[in-house]
Write a structure and sequence with these properties.
Elements (H helix, E strand, L loop, with lengths): L5 H15 L7 E7 L7 E7 L16 E2 L6 E6 L5 H4 L15 E9 L2 E11 L17 E8 L19 E3 L2 E6 L13 E6 L5 E3 L7 E6 L5 E6 L15 E6 L7 E4 L3 E7 L2 E7 L6 E7 L12 E4 L6 E6 L7 E7 L7 E6 L4 E4 L10 E6 L5 E7 L12 E6 L6 E6 L2 E5 L5 E5 L7 E5 L6 E4 L3 E6 L6 E6 L11 E6 L7 E3 L8 E5 L5 E6 L6 E6 L3 E8 L7 E6 L6 E5 L10 E5 L7 E4 L7 E6 L5 E6 L20 E6 L6 E2 L7 E7 L8 E2 L35
């Protein structure tokens, strides 16, 4: 194939000199997608607990109060019994006068792309939370708010504590929380562990044994004991419905005396130092229910001596119980009733076995998650999506959200879309829109001049290294069979007419095009043989100009990317367990020699979407290498069923984790321009509430009864 214009030759010369000059900057940027993350934001709300004598509680929107500040994602709250250790750290601890109406809250939040635990101390206008009609969530006037991150992170410190999507608790001067900052060292084994940090000094100790994953910590009323849902050292099996954790109890002080008290249980919560409520799915009838574990007051504590009884009856799903110290009358729970599309918070009265609905009266068509109660049992907290409300900061949906990273030479972003790719000079980004349109967009790196360049269902994107403005994509449905009609097209995004050329014909699931750096060839995935293997075709004329097969076998080779020096092609493959769902990263020379595995994902694991660094010495990829970071049923919107973003050398060494956010991250790309590490907002868009609950709550249980129905269930 000949170069057709002098312009192309000049452009290639400039690109080669820019790419491979020794004086080129080593700084670069990685952009990836997080499934649905930009389409929801959470805040923590509170309601007064009505009297049991009210047959029909007079709860309405006028009783609901939004506590958190409407910035980013705020969830999994905790009303501290004594917050004096935190208040003592404030510069002006007396800046908010003490009042029964003042709210004190500990919660998890993600700000600047980093998870942390915050403490809010808020003074709110009004006389009583129990008086109806005083305020609504939109009318509350916050006169003063003291807000402080409890765990200050330092992206340059390898010992940074990264708090996750789980419950924090304050015990005296110590914060009990979950972190993923320590590598388990074993593929597909969660990094999740429980830690204790002494707030005044910052001294931190790990309470979870090495090789064990602990979720959802709950501290007993006395503070002496902590209960966790533990996954042991089993490693993640890939189950995205229920982890089948066991409940362990240990000393809050140092993690000693650890003992298993319940087989098969999660999300423990104490009512007193001998009584724990928890949830699990019943193996006989399939309903999620609340159970109670009664620990013996004398003698040895183990699974044989602990009395376990079912508390909530079958008939609908009930999970994530919450209690207040010493209150044996009721527990707060989240439910999914048959016929309802939404989770709601209800009270369950233990003695008469009756439910009292609460949040359905406030916002019937919104999910409500993970209730928690004040120490005196008068206030209910929970988090929910704030829907169409504007952020307090006035921000819109972010096109590019900057995430903190421990890699100082890399600027890290998530994009509001999928399958991003950088132009050769790094000044533009192509990406696919959300799942509702699937259009291909191009935007300048600073967020300006965003426009749709192909309006039709598409996936993947890649820029030509030589032909300025040419972008390749696959047109058709993704996650489809070998015979599905998918073809590769080339679009000139600099031409106002947006002309495109079809490069493959016949549609045997031709996808993931990646051009060679010299502009001559394109490697892609095709199902034309009945299996998804790799092929190389002419970059200008497509398969009609010449095509050859690169890999061959009864497996799936896919998600290919050509190295900047033209020497290697990286791809994901299930060739070691065809059809088993396990993918790993391989590399091969374009002439078909030198095949080798780069990333081992573990038994049944996934390592996908490899992309070369600008210097060709590293790859970025997504993987479930670190297992699951939260209980799926408790955190259906962000418990990480797929994976995180990693980088590694091309020989597979020096694997480093870039994200600790517990969402589903994927489709990373690596560009040579170091983008200014600040958020880039999209124009004229406000936060929405687009996510789904777990789809498997909608199937028939073992008694043939249909659970809650939702037309768009999440895959968790």
């Amino acid at each position: 194939m000949k170069y057709t214009t002098l312009v192309q030759i000049i452009h290639l010369w400039i690109f080669i000199n820019f790419c491979f000059s020794p004086s080129s900057s080593t700084k670069s940027s990685i952009v990836f997608t997080t499934l649905g993350r930009s389409r929801y934001n959470f805040d923590i709300y509170t309601l007064p607990i009505p009297s049991i004598t009210q047959s029909f509680p007079t709860i309405s929107k006028h009783h609901e109060l939004k506590i958190t500040d409407g910035i980013s994602v705020n969830f999994n709250g905790h009303f501290p019994i004594d917050s004096s250790p935190i208040l003592s750290l404030l510069n002006e601890p007396n800046s908010i006068p003490s009042s029964p109406n003042n709210l004190q809250l500990i919660y998890v939040t993600e700000r600047n792309g980093t998870s942390n635990i915050y403490f809010d101390y808020v003074r709110v206008v009004g006389d009583s939370f129990n008086r109806p009609g005083i305020r609504s969530a939109m009318e509350v006037e916050v006169l003063n708010r003291v807000q402080v991150p409890i765990l200050k992170t330092d992206s340059g410190n390898e010992n940074t504590r990264v708090s996750m999507k789980d419950r924090p608790s304050l015990v005296g001067e110590n914060l009990i929380y979950v972190s993923t900052h320590e590598n388990s060292g074993v593929p597909r084994t969660s990094w999740v562990a429980v830690y204790s940090t002494h707030i005044p000094t910052g001294s931190t100790s790990r309470l979870t044994p090495k090789g064990v994953a602990d979720f959802s910590p709950a501290v007993s009323p006395s503070g002496v004991y902590t209960a966790v849902a533990s996954y042991g050292g089993k490693g993640w099996s890939g189950d995205v419905e229920e982890l089948r954790t066991d409940i362990y109890v240990f000393s809050t002080r140092d993690g000693s005396g650890r003992v298993k008290i319940v087989e098969h249980g999660g999300w423990p919560t104490w009512v007193d130092d001998r009584t724990i409520y928890f949830h699990r799915r019943n193996d006989e009838d399939g309903w999620w229910s609340i159970y109670k574990a009664i620990l013996p007051r004398v003698g040895r504590v183990n699974t044989e001596s602990v009395i376990v009884e079912r508390v909530t009856p079958p008939g609908w799903h009930v999970f994530t119980p919450a209690t207040s110290p010493g209150n044996h009358d009721f527990i707060a729970v989240a439910t999914r009733r048959p016929g309802s599309d939404f989770r709601h918070i209800e009270l369950f009265y233990v003695k008469n076995k009756k439910f009292m609905e609460l949040t359905r009266f406030v916002s019937p068509n919104t999910h409500h998650f993970n209730p928690f109660l004040s120490a005196d049992g008068t206030q209910l907290g929970y988090h929910k999506c704030r829907g169409g409300e504007k952020d307090s900061s006035g921000s819109k949906i972010l096109l590019l959200e900057n995430l903190k990273t421990s890699e100082p030479e890399i600027s890290l972003f998530r994009v509001d879309g999928s399958f991003p790719s950088f132009s050769p000079m790094g000044d533009r980004i192509a990406f696919l829109g959300d799942l509702n349109d699937g259009y291909l967009y191009v935007v300048n790196h600073n967020g300006s001049n965003m426009r749709a360049v192909h309006k039709g269902r598409a996936f993947t994107s890649a820029w030509d290294f030589v032909r300025k403005g040419v972008v390749y994509t696959s047109v058709g449905p993704n996650f489809a069979s070998e015979s599905t009609k998918v073809d590769i097209i080339a679009i000139n995004v600099d031409d106002e007419e947006l002309p495109y050329k079809k490069l493959t014909h016949g549609g045997e699931n031709n996808a993931f095009p990646s051009p060679s750096p010299n502009g001559k060839w394109i490697v892609f995935r095709s199902g034309r043989s009945g299996h998804k293997n790799l092929y190389i075709m002419d970059a200008e004329e497509g398969e009609l100009g010449g095509i050859r097969r690169l890999t061959e076998g009864p497996w799936s080779d896919t998600m290919c990317n050509w190295s900047p020096d033209g020497e290697w092609i990286a791809f994901a493959s299930d060739r070691e367990d065809p059809g088993g769902g396990s993918f790993e990263v391989f590399m091969i020379h374009p002439n078909g020699t030198g095949l080798r595995k780069v990333i081992q994902s573990g038994v049944g694991g996934r390592a996908n979407h490899p992309w070369f660094s600008p210097d060709g010495q590293s790859i970025v990829f997504t993987s479930d290498y670190t297992g699951v970071s939260a209980e799926p049923i408790s955190n259906p919107h962000h418990y990480q069923p797929y994976g995180e973003i990693f980088i590694a050398k091309i020989d597979g060494s020096d694997i480093r984790r870039l994200t600790h956010n517990s969402f589903e991250d994927g489709t990373p790309t690596w560009g040579r321009r170091f983008l200014n590490p600040i958020d880039v907002a999209q124009p004229n868009k406000e936060p929405k509430c687009e996510f789904q609950d777990c789809h498997w709550l909608n199937i028939k249980n073992k008694l043939g009864m249909v659970g809650p129905y939702s037309s768009n269930g999440a895959h968790c």
